[in-house]
């Protein structure tokens, strides 16, 4: 009978409430583990289990119908694991919800496999003496830290090749137009009808003889 008792679920439940819907990469994940019980429970401690998993697909040779064939297999690797104790020995019973604040650091990760994805999670565990543990798990959403700058690749302009062919007038760097002051084109010249002096086309009075055009 004592053996069967180890298999009987407790009349208790746990839940995790995060302090905010998402966290910046590098900042601690904070929240509370809430515990509700409808029977007497002897706990040996409350802890948080932080995990980072990478999910990916990988080709493997498997045997099907007595033949070895390639097949894409879904796999999961544990990239990070950290257990943090947030409370020691305690007795639980019927009554109001008990909350246990926690703070745990989880480093950022990037997929190491093509097409892989990263999953961040925390699990609240109320360890119970001689009975199944009371647990609750939730996933964590992370965003880049404040001030994080994304470096964009240089812009390539259509028609401007690396050799400098078809570059716009005044451009000094192959592939990129010049954004500084552009050189001005010389004004067309005309000859004065009276003294034959060359002058700008838009001039109305000859600078040499003073004749009007």
Describe the structure.
The chain is mainly beta. It folds into two domains: 2-140, Immunoglobulin-like (Sandwich); 188-213. The chain has one helix and twelve strands; from the N terminus they run αββββββββββββ. It has one helix spanning 2-5; strands at residues 12-18, 23-24, 29-37, 41-64, 67-87, 90-92, 98-104, 117-128, 134-140, 142-143, 189-191, 198-200. Strands 4, 5, 6, 8 and 9 form a five-stranded antiparallel sheet that branches. A three-stranded antiparallel sheet has the order 1-3-7, with no helix packed on it. Mean pLDDT is 82; it is low at 157-165.
Write the layout of secondary structure elements.
Layout: H1 2-5, E1 12-18, E2 23-24, E3 29-37, E4 41-64, E5 67-87, E6 90-92, E7 98-104, E8 117-128, E9 134-140, E10 142-143, E11 189-191, E12 198-200
Parallel strand pairs: 2-10
Antiparallel strand pairs: 1-3, 3-7, 4-5, 4-6, 4-8, 8-9, 11-12
Structural class: mainly beta
What is the total domain count? 2
CATH topology of the largest domain: the name is Immunoglobulin-like
Q: Say how many strands there are.
A: 12
The SSE order reads HEEEEEEEEEEEE
Largest sheet: 5 strands, antiparallel
Unreliable segments of 5+ consecutive residues: 157-165
Mean pLDDT: 82
Kindly summarize this structure in a few lines.
The chain is mostly beta strands and 213 residues long.
